[in-house]
From TrEMBL:
This is Cell adhesion molecule 3. It is a single-pass type I membrane protein. The keyword DNA-binding does not apply. SUPFAM superfamilies: Immunoglobulin. Gene3D superfamilies: Immunoglobulins. Residues 27-116, 134-232, 237-319 form the Ig-like domain. GO terms for biological process: homophilic cell adhesion via plasma membrane adhesion molecules. The keyword Transmembrane helix applies. It comes from Marmota marmota marmota (Alpine marmot). Its main location: membrane.
């Protein structure tokens, strides 16, 4: 472009003279833009496959070419130039050249060049980034069973990540705050080893828990890659006494079960009663049995659960209630039958009362109609008077009761 301005060698264009816009929109400029190939940067996980795609609008009767970071030609058009079976032709047209590289290694990372041999030669760059997959993390620092309230430090490390991965800790669903991830470059100069540690004071609730170290990295695409450490915590036993039946009565059989828990599990149980000396029973069995309860059995009982880690005593107050008769099945049956019979008798009495009222009303109506139909019968008024003991109607006195 400077030559088109007829500038002499060693001279500069004046600052106040704008370059003609016709230079930037000249046909040669537009043609060169159409002949410029383009491509894109790619990221691939080690061991995967990457596709390199190069396109051009105006090929000017020239073929496209792909070269690796060492400037070795891979493909010129559809012709293979480098004997590497991992590199295969995907598409070859006058406007496009696409190749694939399978089983990508860390050494394949770098800038790949797409060229078109026009005048002048034009090129486009594609940066291939290879991600190193972190190895499964390894946890160290746990040696043997811990005692309650001991301090424990666990270490975790993972190598082979590129870029460097991050480590996290958790216990069950609870996140643990470990030390920040430490990063160290591997001997190959490309990948990294990351490490972290976590320190916690264990409790009896931690017995049987899993401490998990997870590695987070973009090459995993959300997949979980973690290692867990199962821990065991030794702690003193606890115990509680459970009666069977819950509300014992005199004459019944009673079992007092001493339920001991701990790590290790209690191996021995010692039973005692306040005011009684010596102890009632020392056994590996956890139950104290009363075959036939008496009032004298009432009192406060204690059960001591014993293990290698110590002992614990639980107490229970036994109150023996008076015996209560238990209704038999036959008496229950008789009570049901008696209730049914009483209900039937009650219905019959109601029926008889209604029937009596009905008969009395209909009998009086019948006598009234009979008196009206007889020749000897007085009229209704006379009948009423006679019924009340007033006048008589002849020698034979007739009385009508209405």
């Amino acid at each position: 472009y400077w030559q088109e301005q007829d500038l002499e060698l060693g001279t500069l264009a004046p600052l106040d003279e704008p370059i003609s816009s016709t230079v930037w929109s000249s046909p040669d400029m537009l043609a060169s833009q159409d002949s410029q190939p383009w491509t894109s940067d790619e990221t691939v996980v080690a061991g995967g496959t990457v596709v390199l795609k190069c396109q051009v609008k105006d090929h000017e009767d020239s073929s496209l070419q792909w070269s690796n970071p060492a400037q070795q030609t891979l493909y010129f058009g559809e012709k293979r130039a480098l004997r590497d079976n991992r590199i295969q032709l995907v598409s070859s047209t006058p406007h496009e050249l696409s190749i694939s590289i399978s089983n990508v290694a860390l050494a394949d990372e770098g800038e790949y060049t797409c060229s078109i041999f026009t005048m002048p030669v034009r090129t486009a760059k594609s940066l291939v980034t290879v991600l190193g997959i972190p190895q499964k993390p390894i946890i160290t620092g746990y040696k043997s069973s811990l005692r309650e309230k001991d301090i424990m430090t666990l270490n975790c490390h993972s190598s082979g990540s590129k870029p460097a991965a991050q480590l996290t800790w958790r216990k069950g669903d609870q996140e643990l705050h470990g030390e920040p991830t430490r990063i160290q470059e591997d001997s190959n100069g490309k990948t990294f080893t990351v490490s972290s540690s976590v320190t916690l004071q264990v409790t009896r609730e931690d017995d049987g828990a899993d401490i998990v170290c997870s590695v987070n990295h973009e090459s995993l695409k959300g997949a979980d890659r973690s290692t867990s450490q199962h821990i065991e915590v030794l702690y003193t036993p606890t115990a509680m006494i459970r009666p069977d039946p819950p509300h014992p009565r005199e004459g019944q059989k009673l079992s007092l079960h001493c339920e001991g828990r701990g790590n290790p599990v209690p191996q021995k149980y010692l039973w005692m009663k306040e005011g009684s000396d010596p102890p009632l029973k020392t056994t590996q069995e956890s139950a104290l049995i009363f075959p036939f309860l008496n009032k004298s059995d009432s009192g406060i009982y204690g059960c001591t659960a014993i293990s290698n880690m110590g002992s614990y005593t639980a107490y229970f107050t036994l109150n023996v209630n008076d015996p209560s008769p238990v209704p038999s099945s036959s008496s229950t049956y008789h009570a049901i039958i008696g209730g049914i019979v009483a209900f039937i008798v009650f219905l019959l009495l109601i029926l008889l009362i209604f029937l009596g009222h009905y008969l009395i009303r209909h009998k009086g109506t019948y006598l009234t109609h009979e008196a009206k139909g007889s020749d000897d019968a007085p009229d209704a008024d006379t009948a009423i008077i006679n019924a009340e003991g007033g006048q008589s109607g002849g020698d034979d006195k007739k009385e009508y009761f209405i």
